[in-house]
């Protein structure tokens, strides 16, 4: 661990489970000799501790899914890790994801599980739900068939699902039930580390609250770490302990969630919080001017500068470092703390 | 006063259970409302999943036939459309935007092909430069450009980018009515605001009416003129959007309103705990 990464954290913190250092992962296409590079993850460092829910927010195409695919070791060409490292520490068992790919494979189900974006549709439409459990989880649990079935059934019950869903086909379940099933599938092996990409985005408000409660409950019971990705800041408010904001493949800010909502330090964070609609308020919400940056050809300097309301000359020339912030987090901005919400 | 769209006691049943079962559920149950032709508006249909919102959208788009009642668009009973010409003319005026952009675009076809096809089919654009011009204009309206998406496939774009492409596609034929089925549930708050602000601009500048289907009461409150709230196919509350959402009277509307997560960590976490505790009882 480098000195730069340890200084900003108080000493009494729980152990780090995930450490990412200066990670760069690009989509690299060679089309007729023309190389196109999409720099979806471009120099990210962060750590996730035991027993916390770490949120990742950011606008569409900022690279959230790309980042967590890289964390889960779930990347395929044209995506490539071009620099940096991702490592886990599962109670002393150390795994460097890209230095020792074999080790990661074994850990994938035992220690870590990954609920993918749109994963409700990964349930095979022509097979009963029980096949998904048999295929994904059976091998990793070292139980005989009967004990395995009993474990799955009791797990489903804990999540408020009737064990009869095992005999159902996916289309017979509502969207909310399918999402519960995917969460059950992801947690039945009691993983220490859960990665969830937009797990509640397609759900209506009532079911969304149930599923969020469920994730919180499972996390607290298992004492696991959860990396929770969504663009929805209200969901982050409800469930995360710490929150990172991504912009154009980089982190803009990271802080304890409450502190970030109270006093955001980065102008982009301030914008995200101010743009949330509230019932009872019809004052026009400004959406950000300009366009989301192209990751094939990102802006120079601070990537937010073309859309930043308080940009100065320096912003287009120099890249701001991610430095400790006034609210106990980190922020990458030359004028951190200068924009208030509203 | 003429109507742009009128629903007159519309009902839709779906069979439940086995193939030969005689049971059915009413996905939409005796729904009536009308949109004025000369007063474009944003009309929200709100309800939890399974309440019949998408079924309603499909009937308005002419993709599902009601079991009872009629839908009349611009003086034409949608149920009587037979000829290809009539159907094409109808479709140009009523355009859909769907919820899940990943399903709306075939992964094997570049996304721009859909926009070119729409320009060709509804605007008679035959040569490539005409198609590209119409496509680029529509993309610019949603904050994209043809240069950015040209030749790309759906899996190469993020969820939010795809949804903007879907809105752009619907704009190409200059429709009179857009039926948007949960168009912002997959996109971030800032983009969500830019899409709903875009709907406002379409209403005010292009005089397009919009049926905005959502379970997000906060954006419904923010942009709609009128709202209906549905539960199990039935309209349980309707009226001026602000009046209804400020003071919902039906217990279900109240529950929906309470389920909107407040954008504040303490209040939101408390709301989740409250609901878990209620469910455990
Ligand atoms: N297979 C791919 N090939 C090339 N580019 C890709 C590929 N997959 C994603 N991208 C690009 O990488 C960037 C980041 O995409 P990513 O899916 O990580 O965004 P995201 O933050 O998860 O967005 P959303 O909130 O919309 O899901 C986008 O510009 C996207 O177009
Ligand atoms: N093609 C179909 N076949 C059978 N049942 C359907 C079909 N489409 C919808 N339903 C049922 O009709 C009801 C309303 O569904 P839908 O209109 O999709 O609701 P919403 O869009 O509000 O979530 C649900 O009970 C759903 O299961
Ligand atoms: S570094 Fe400059 S451009 Fe970037 S967010 Fe801060 S003020 Fe804005
Ligand atoms: Mg994503
Ligand atoms: Mg629907």
Question: What's this entry about, in short?
Answer:
Chain A is of the alpha/beta class and 342 residues long.
Note the topology:
The complex is a heterodimer of chains A (342) and B (281).
Chain A: H1 3-6, E1 16-31, E2 34-49, E3 53-57, H2 64-71, E4 79-90, E5 93-96, H3 101-110, E6 112-115, H4 129-136, H5 138-141, H6 145-158, H7 175-187, E7 193-197, H8 205-222, E8 225-229, H9 233-239, E9 242-247, E10 250-256, H10 257-262, H11 267-274, E11 323-324, E12 330-331
Parallel strand pairs in A: 3-8, 3-9, 6-7, 7-8
Antiparallel strand pairs in A: 1-2, 1-4, 4-5, 9-10, 10-12, 11-12
Chain B: E1 3-15, E2 24-36, E3 42-46, H1 53-60, E4 68-73, E5 76-77, H2 84-93, E6 94-97, H3 101-104, H4 111-123, H5 128-141, H6 146-149, H7 159-171, E7 177-181, H8 189-206, E8 209-214, H9 217-223, E9 226-231, E10 234-240, H10 241-246, H11 251-258, H12 265-280
Parallel strand pairs in B: 3-8, 3-9, 6-7, 7-8
Antiparallel strand pairs in B: 1-2, 1-4, 4-5, 9-10
The complex binds adenosine-5'-triphosphate, adenosine-5'-diphosphate, iron/sulfur cluster and magnesium ion (2 copies).
């Amino acid at each position: 661990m480098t000195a730069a990464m340890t200084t900003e954290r108080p000493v009494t913190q729980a152990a780090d489970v995930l450490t990412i250092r200066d990670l760069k992962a690009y989509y690299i296409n060679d089309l007729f000799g023309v190389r196109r590079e999409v720099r979806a993850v471009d120099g990210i460092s962060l750590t996730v501790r035991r027993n916390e829910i770490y949120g990742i927010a950011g606008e569409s195409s900022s690279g959230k899914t790309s980042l967590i695919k890289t964390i889960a070791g779930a990347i395929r060409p044209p995506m490539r890790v071009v620099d940096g490292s991702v490592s886990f520490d599962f109670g002393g068992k150390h795994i460097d994801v890209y230095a020792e790919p074999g080790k990661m494979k074994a850990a994938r189900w035992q220690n870590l599980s990954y609920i993918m974006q749109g994963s409700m549709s990964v349930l095979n439409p022509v097979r009963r739900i029980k096949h998904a459990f048999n295929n994904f989880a059976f091998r990793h649990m070292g139980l005989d068939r009967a004990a395995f079935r009993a474990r799955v059934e009791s797990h489903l019950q804990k999540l408020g699902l009737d064990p009869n869903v095992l005999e159902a086909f996916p289309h017979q379940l509502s969207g909310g039930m399918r999402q519960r099933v995917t969460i059950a599938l992801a947690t039945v092996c009691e993983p220490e580390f859960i990665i969830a990409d937009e797990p509640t985005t397609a759900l209506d408000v009532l079911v969304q609250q149930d599923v969020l409660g469920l994730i919180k409950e499972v996390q607290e019971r298992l004492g696991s770490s959860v990396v929770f990705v969504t663009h929805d800041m209200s969901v982050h408010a409800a469930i995360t302990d710490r929150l990172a904001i991504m912009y154009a493949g980089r982190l803009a800010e990271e802080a304890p969630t409450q502190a970030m909502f109270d006093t955001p330090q980065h102008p982009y964070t301030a914008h995200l919080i101010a743009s949330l609609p509230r019932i009872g308020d019809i004052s026009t919400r400004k959406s950000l001017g300009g366009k989301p940056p192209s990751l094939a050809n990102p802006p120079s300097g601070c990537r937010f500068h073309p859309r930043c309301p308080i940009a100065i000359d320096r912003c287009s020339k120099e890249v701001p470092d991610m430095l400790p912030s006034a609210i106990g987090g980190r922020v990458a901005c030359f004028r951190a703390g200068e924009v208030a919400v509203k | 006063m003429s109507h742009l769209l009128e629903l007159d006691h519309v009902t839709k049943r779906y069979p439940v259970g086995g193939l030969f079962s005689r049971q059915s559920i009413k996905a939409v149950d005796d729904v009536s409302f009308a949109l004025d032709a000369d007063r474009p508006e944003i009309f929200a249909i709100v309800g939890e999943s399974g309440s019949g919102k998408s079924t309603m959208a499909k009937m308005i788009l002419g993709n599902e036939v009601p079991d009872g009642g009629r839908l009349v668009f611009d003086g034409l009973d949608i149920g009587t459309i037979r000829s290809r010409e009539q159907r094409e003319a109808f479709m140009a005026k009523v355009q859909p935007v769907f919820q899940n952009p990943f399903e709306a675009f075939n992964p094997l076809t570049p996304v721009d092909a859909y926009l070119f096809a729409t320009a060709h089919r509804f605007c008679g654009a035959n040569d490539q430069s005409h198609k590209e011009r119409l496509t680029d204009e529509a993309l610019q309206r949603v904050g994209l450009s043809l240069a950015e998406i040209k030749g790309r496939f759906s899996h190469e774009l993020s969820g939010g980018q795809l949804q903007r492409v879907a809105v752009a596609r619907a704009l190409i034929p200059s429709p009179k009515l857009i039926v948007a089925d949960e168009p912002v549930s997959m996109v971030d708050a800032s983009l969500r605001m830019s899409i709903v602000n875009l709907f406002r601009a379409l209403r005010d500048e292009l005089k397009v009416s919009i049926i905005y289907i959502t379970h997000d009461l906060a954006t419904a409150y923010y942009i709609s003129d009128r709202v209906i709230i549905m539960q199990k196919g039935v309209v349980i509350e309707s009226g001026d959007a602000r009046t209804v959402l400020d003071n919902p009277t039906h217990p279900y509307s109240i529950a929906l309103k309470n389920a909107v997560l407040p954008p504040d960590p303490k209040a939101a976490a408390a709301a989740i705990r409250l609901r878990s505790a209620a469910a455990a009882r």
